[in-house]
Amino acid sequence: MLSGTGSAQDHALPDIHSRQTGRSSVRRFTQYKQHSITGFVLEINDLHAGIGDREILRGITLKVNAGEVHAVMGPNGSGKSTLAQVLAGNPSYQVTKGTVRYNGLDLLEMDPEVRAQNGIFLAFQYPVEIPGVSIAYFLRSAYNEIRKANGQEEVDPLEFLDLVQDRLRLVDVDESMLSRSVNQGFSGGEKKRNEIFQMAVLSPRLAILDETDSGLDIDALRIVAEGVNKLRSPENATIVVTHYQRLLNYIIPDFVHVLANGRIVKSGGKELALELEEHGYDWVQNSAGVGAGAS
Amino acid sequence: MSSGIEALVNREYAYGFVTDVETDTVPAGLNEDVIRTISAKKNEPEFMLEWRLKAYRRWLTMKEPHWGNVRYPPIDYNSLVYYSAPKSVKPLQSLDEVDPELLRTYQKLGISLNEQKMLAGVAVDAIFDSVSVGTTMREELGKLGIIFCSFGEAIQTHPDLVEKYLGTVVPHSDNFFAALNAAVFSDGSFAYVPKGVKCPMELSTYFRINSKNTGQFERTLIIADEGASVSYLEGCTAPKRDENQLHAAVVELIALDNASVKYSTVQNWYSGDAEGRGGIYNFVTKRGKAAGVNSKISWTQVETGSAITWKYPSVILQGDNSTGEFYSVAVVNRKQQADTGTKMIHIGKNTKSTIVSKGISAGQGNNSYRGLVRVLPKAEGARNYTQCDSMLIGNNCGAHTFPYIEVQNNTATLEHEASTSKIGEDQIFYCKQRGLSAEHAVSMIVSGFCREVFKELPMEFAVEAQQLLGITLEGSVG
Ligand SMILES: Nc1ncnc2c1ncn2[C@@H]1O[C@H](COP(=O)(O)OP(=O)(O)O)[C@@H](O)[C@H]1O
Ligand SMILES: [Mg+2]
Prior knowledge:
The complex is a heterodimer of chains A (295) and B (478). Chain A has 295 residues and is of the alpha/beta class. In chain A, 32% of the residues lie in helices and 25% in strands.
């Protein structure tokens, strides 16, 4: 089980992924002092996955430690979303080979909701509409479900409304959004912002952002990136999946990986993103001997 | 008939089989003697007996309707018992004899053990709070001149009102099941709200004294006099077991000038075991007459129970500027079948009707919406809006829509929207990714789908209905 109840100062939401015993109101809980931080590790080893007969990921190996930000870049169709979805447990994809360990647990054995309850969050490239279900209700249910799974008490609607206020500000979202149906009639940018808002509320251990920058104008991009940065802490990790470099001007990654044809063809520090920007994806694919035009 | 508290308490004590006659029974089968006996046992005035007999003679000439999109084995009407005094219905001895599925559902709904027993038809020896609540409530209503009692009691205490309105909306000859009901109906509810009175509380069968086990042929009559308004709740969310498989109820609503009647139902009769065995056949005739100018009749129904549902709560828009509404959620799972919808009959000028139907099919359930909008020649400026949405969960269920439109006045405006959607794997995964279980996800998605209907329900009812929906759909996704 994940432990550690610490929260950064500007990260006032209660940590819902840590076990809490006995009755405790949220208010009291938010005043918890930071203590024992244990970092977690995500270890992906030789992961192969696909849909039906079609293999999309062909041997991904990647290690992510708590406190790190990894960028996964690559041309369209290289398998970035597939990797994100497989980590989140989308049953449409079949894992054919390899292992993923998360904090010592076999991630692939866990149901998607259990992964979420253990702190894995995916900001979807294409967020799904749920007509008639308000964001407030949806997100409170999720929040409470995660709390319950971690032995904490549920919060009531008013408490919840209270505690999401600073999260709304963090991503500059108006409170009125809470009463809108989940993603229904949202612009592309609103959907992405809503994903980050949800992330901010659920304060995951491992956040995977799949093309969160696409559909955002430059102002929105900055707001979202600032939000992500504020949520960074020594015990959380983020995997930023993106086609473009520009998001990485705002969210500075510790590591950059380039995905092509279902494999990581190059890894490096943040400067790799800039090189890519300059030379294009063909450059890595060539230098990695993968052959141009593979995308 | 006494309504003293002591008598009531004793009735409840005897497991609430409401009766004012001692324990004999009438043999199975139906003939004029049986009807005379029923009427006599209920000590009814002559006009009631005549009406019952008229209905019976008519019924003999009618055929059971089979146009509904439902299938069931033939019903042998001569094997049914049409008047059963308390002792003939043998209560089960303990909860051990009840379908465990049903018990699990009760637990999920948080229903007390005693109430579980009552609902499941197990003998109980407890006195329920509802008795005193009911009594207090009746006193309060009495001060306003509102009559709210059992049908049987109304026949005794207000025969004039019963005679004046009975059968004016659903005539004795209306259809096969309605005629049968008219001939043999056992009991039901009666409400009358006098001129200008707004009924200050929701009237509910649950709290009505004498409401337990009104039986398979229930009859309800609700009248809102000029300028009056009333909201009525039928049923409760807990699944009820019943010895009688065939239920043929009739509900008549009447709204006079500037009056309104709102009728909300949560129907959750036992739907049978996994194979649908033992579930209720719910063949109901419900109709309201918006008789006066500016009058309004509004139906809201959440249908989750019964093995078979056949019902079309309808509105006759007779008064000029009158309004009719039908908001419906019908859910079928496992082997349930529902053929339900409405009829809006526009007679008066500038009459307006709204139909919102949400059908949800899961398991091997089969769900049909059947609706008629008829605009008669004098209905200048009539308007109807119909929205009819179906949602499918899984690949073995069915959803059908049968909208009928008959317009005889070319100033009418009719709008019809329909959609069919499948609950998406992507929606469920999105919810799961946020930490919700598949079941929670389905119930949330379905509740969202039904939101327009739920918001018509009284608040606590809506919450319960939502919860109920989730339980009904349990096991419908992996
Ligand atoms: N549901 C699917 N069915 C069939 N092929 C798919 C599906 N999802 C993705 N693919 C294929 O897998 C490859 C990788 O897709 P994806 O992971 O979405 O790439 P990226 O996110 O890097 O653009 C693409 O060729 C795409 O067409
Ligand atoms: Mg993608």
